[in-house]
Structures are given as structure tokens and as C-alpha cells.
Write a structure and sequence with these properties.
It is a single chain. This protein is an alpha+beta fold. It contains 15 helices and 9 strands. It folds into 3 domains: about 60 residues, no CATH class; about 100 residues, no CATH class; about 180 residues, Intergrase catalytic core (hpI Integrase, Chain A), CATH 1.10.443. Helix 2 crosses helix 5. The chain is extended.
């Protein structure tokens, strides 16, 4: 490896045996530094190395030479650790979402920035950047879709800031950052009180009646099994409060028909595996009959297609032997398919896809319907939260705030009685009837 001294030995350029480019090295600010000139000719490499040295020396004299780790280094370290440490506790899709946010949005904006320069003001600049550049093509995105026509949702920005916070916490653990900056959004400290899309009792009745009619008379005969499954899915979800992912991973061996209390109707005891790990759920009595139908429904049989039948008849072959019906086994899924398209088409035909605020209803809305109906019937909020594997705080924030049944009219419409100072004097009105002052309350009409 040949080495050439420049500027009286302050800078050296050299060329490695496995590279065609010249490299430069110099000691600036008490630290040995290296730099690739990206030049193959020695004279051009010498000029690039001298310019690099003078730039570093000027930054050192001005006190702006920053050797601290950058945001990209912390992001790479976070991605290296997160998937391994949280294996089995976070889904692979959630782990990949962090990598996508960093690659597409966060690293291009914060990547070259030293970690101590990620200030609350810089984070606010990032929010403004995301809200104003959403329509421009993003070169970091691998998506084939066109840029969105509306700015990112508040929840999208929240998820990106969550990823940003986790990267900064990784930097703190490795000693690259002293403290976590304030990442809370200014100006909007308290959002509007909103509720999650659900079906009111009248809308829920409209939904299951439409699903029942579709199960009895589907558009095509070979859709019958799927239509019946969707009908039972609607009733099962609204009577158990399971999350969609919990329902789709549910096996028959996880469900037991039991009697919780003597003299009470049977219910389902369900061992749930999903977002919160392993939990338990006790259903409403209405779920028992639905589950019995699911157990008694044979699996769909793949019959002979029209094309296969035409070819068989043309060749003169015999008709295939009818396959025996096979019923669900303990290890089979309760809902083998999610039937998303069929469920959405059902909502569209019933006019229930959008709620009063224009929010789209999904299968998750059936869980919200279960929680709201339990609260409307006067169920204990703690028991509802425990049965749904969530917290009382989440229920109060997203469900209880918009239900009129949670307001006690008797406790609100309280009128304090005033002490009588003496018998009111009777006066004779124009009508000749006596009236007395004080007979009418603050919110009542004058006594007749």
C-alpha cells in the first residue's frame, strides 16, 4: 500500500490493494479521521484530500465539529435489537412496520443529524414536513401506488413518533444521548372526543337480518357455505367481543360449552390467543347456538368444476364418486376464512358501511358493538374490560363517553329544596283563581 504525504505530513493519501480509489487520513480535533476521495488519479485525490482537511480544520476552529453518533446509527442499532429482544411478544408485521417507517420517512429526514440535535423543534419541523409533502413522490418508498391525495392521519404521525422515540431510547441505553427530548405535539394537547365505529341496536338488527337473508338465499348456490359462515361470524363476534385476529386464530379445542351458574343458560368459555397473549372470555348465551351450528356444519367439498365435467363427458369417463362429508375437528379453525369481501359487500348492500361520522365499519366494529351493548345494559365496566382483555381506561375513553345510558338522569337533575321563609301570600289573578309564589320549581311550570 503506497502512501503520499501532503501539507507537510498533516494529510496522507493511500490506495488499498482491493480498491481503485485513493483514501485520505488526517488527525483533526485529537482524533484520527479517514475519508474516501472517490478519485482514481493521484493529483485529483490530493486536491480532494486537502479540501477535506481544510474543511475539518475550519470546523474544529469554529467549534462546530461534531463527532457524536448520528440518528442513522441509532436507527440501525434499534433494528438490530428490536426483532430479537421482542421475539414472540410482537408480531412480525409490527416489527416490519418500524423498519418501513425508518426507511421511508424518519432516516431520510433525521439520518445525518447528530442525536443531540433531535430537538422538540426539529420533531415539529418533521411533522410539518410530513403534512406538506404527502403529494410528492417519495424515492424511498417501494410502493407502486400513486402519492396520497390527503395528508397523513393523526394516528399515522403518532406511530412514526413512537418509532422515533424508541430509536432515541436505544441511543440513551448505549450512552449516545443523555436524555429524551419532549416529543409531544404542541397546540393540540387534547383531541376531540370521538368514538369507534359500532352498530347501534337498530343497526345491529338490520345487519344480522341482512346476513341471515343472504345465508338463506345467496347470490350463487356455491356461495352458501361462505354466506352461512359470515352470518354466524356476525352473531359470534357480537356475543363474545373477540378481536378479529383472535377469532381467526381460534380453534375448536379452545371453545367449551359450559354452565357458569346453576339455573342460568349455557355460555361459551373461550381460551383466547391474540394481541394480549393468552386470555379467557365468557360469551353471552346467544353465542352457544351459533357455535353449535358451526360444529354441525360440514367442511366445504371441492366438487367437479364445469370445465372438468365437460372434459370427462367428452372422454366418456364415469362420474366421480361423491366424497364423504367431513366435519370440524378439535384442531380446525372455527373460522377458516376471513370472508372480508363478503362481509364488506354485506355492509354496502345494507347501507351500514359508514357510520354517522363517516367512519368505515369493519369486523372490529362488532367488538365495539359488544362492549357498547354491555355498558348500555348496565354491566360492570371492570368486568367488561377484563372479559375483553383491555383496560377500564380504554373503555371509558373510546366507548363510555358517547353512550347516553352512562349518564344518570336522577343524579343530574337534582334540585335542592329551599327553606320556606313563611307562608306565601295568596293573590287573586285576573282569572279569579288563586296562585301562590314558590309553587313552581326552577325547571317546572307554574302550578295550575
Amino acid at each position: 500500500m503506497s502512501t503520499v504525504d501532503l501539507l507537510g505530513g498533516k494529510v496522507q493519501i493511500y490506495q488499498r490493494g482491493n480498491s481503485r480509489f485513493w483514501q485520505a487520513r488526517a488527525s483533526v480535533g485529537g482524533k484520527q479521521r479517514q475519508f474516501s476521495t472517490k478519485q482514481e488519479i493521484q493529483d485529483l485525490a490530493a486536491k480532494a484530500a486537502e479540501g477535506w482537511y481544510f474543511k475539518l480544520h475550519g470546523q474544529s476552529l469554529a467549534g462546530v465539529l461534531n463527532d457524536r453518533p448520528t440518528f442513522k446509527k441509532a436507527a440501525d442499532q434499534f433494528l438490530k435489537e428490536y426483532g430479537i429482544i421482542t421475539e414472540g411478544e410482537r408480531s412480525q408485521k409490527w416489527t416490519e412496520s418500524h423498519a418501513i417507517r425508518l426507511r421511508v420517512h424518519l432516516v431520510p429526514f433525521f439520518g445525518a443529524l447528530p442525536l443531540d440535535k433531535v430537538s422538540p423543534g426539529k420533531v415539529q419541523e418533521y411533522r410539518v414536513h410530513r403534512m406538506t409533502t404527502y403529494a410528492a413522490p417519495n424515492p424511498q418508498s417501494k410502493s407502486q401506488h400513486k402519492p396520497k391525495a390527503k395528508p397523513p392521519a393523526r394516528s399515522t404521525l403518532h406511530d412514526e413518533v413512537v418509532t422515533l422515540r424508541m430509536v432515541l431510547k436505544t441511543a440513551i441505553r448505549h450512552g449516545w444521548l443523555e436524555h429524551l427530548p419532549d416529543l409531544t405535539p404542541p397546540y393540540r394537547t387534547q383531541g376531540k372526543i370521538v368514538h369507534r365505529p359500532w352498530f347501534s341496536p337498530e343497526e345491529y338488527k338490520q345487519l344480522y337480518e341482512a346476513a341471515r337473508a343472504n345465508a338463506k338465499a345467496p347470490e350463487r348456490a356455491h356461495y352458501r357455505w361462505n354466506a352461512e359462515q359470515v352470518y354466524d361470524f356476525v352473531l359470534f363476534m357480537a356475543n363474545t367481543g373477540l378481536r378479529p385476529d383472535e377469532a381467526f386464530s381460534l380453534q375448536h379445542r379452545d371453545v367449551t360449552i359450559a354452565n357458569d351458574e346453576a339455573g342460568k343458560p349455557d355460555i361459551l368459555e373461550i381460551e383466547v390467543r391474540g394481541k394480549r397473549g393468552v386470555g379467557h372470555c365468557k360469551s353471552m348465551p346467544g353465542a352457544v347456538r351459533v357455535y353449535e351450528r358451526l360444529l354441525a356444519r360440514a367442511k366445504p367439498v371441492q366438487g367437479e368444476s364445469r370445465r372438468e365435467r365437460q372434459l370427462r363427458r367428452k372422454a366418456g369417463g364415469a362420474a366421480p364418486v361423491a366424497l364423504e362429508l367431513e366435519y370440524p375437528k378439535p384442531t380446525d379453525l372455527v373460522f377458516p376464512g376471513n370472508h372480508i369481501k363478503l362481509f364488506n359487500n354485506l355492509l354496502e348492500r345494507a347501507g351500514l358501511k359508514l357510520d354517522r361520522d363517516g367512519k368505515a365499519r369493519t369486523a372490529y366494529s362488532l367488538r365495539h358493538t359488544y362492549i357498547c351493548m354491555r355498558l348500555m345494559e348496565g354491566a360492570d365496566i371492570y368486568q367488561v374490560a377484563k372479559n375483553c382483555r383491555t383496560s377500564v381506561e380504554m373503555i371509558e375513553k373510546h366507548y363510555a363517553v358517547h353512550l347516553k345510558n352512562t349518564l344518570d338522569a336522577a343524579a343530574i337533575n337534582v334540585v335542592r329544596k329551599k327553606a320556606a321563609k313563611g307562608r306565601p301570600k295568596a293573590t287573586v289573578g285576573k282569572s279569579g283563581r288563586e296562585s301562590s309564589v314558590g309553587k313552581a320549581g326552577v325547571f317546572g311550570e307554574e302550578a295550575d
